Amino acid sequence: MRYLLLIYEDEKTTDMSPEAMGQWEAFTTEVNEAGVHEDGRALQPVSTATTVRVRNGETVTTDGPFAETKEQLGGFYLLNCKDLDEAIAYAAKIPSAPRGSIEVRPVMEFE
Fold it and tell me: Is the pTM here over 0.70, yes or no?
């Protein structure tokens, strides 16, 4: 089953040091070698986001995220795991998990 691991962290305190980047590379290598990694990306800062709503047939855009939060969506991994327990185990290994949160969401598959 495929799971989307959404990575939330306060982008003001995101560690981009060489050591931190090495931890991200190690995690990505681990999920690649395990054969569960399908995709993953880091996102641009939340200041680059645009929220789109359609109200009464009119498209309205707003700069920034949908809601004020302490943590921002910073990226994701798409993993194909045998079950939720395996997905949770990988989520706990994501380098920013100790500072932020990782939402594990099953992907809905349509035939």
Answer: yes
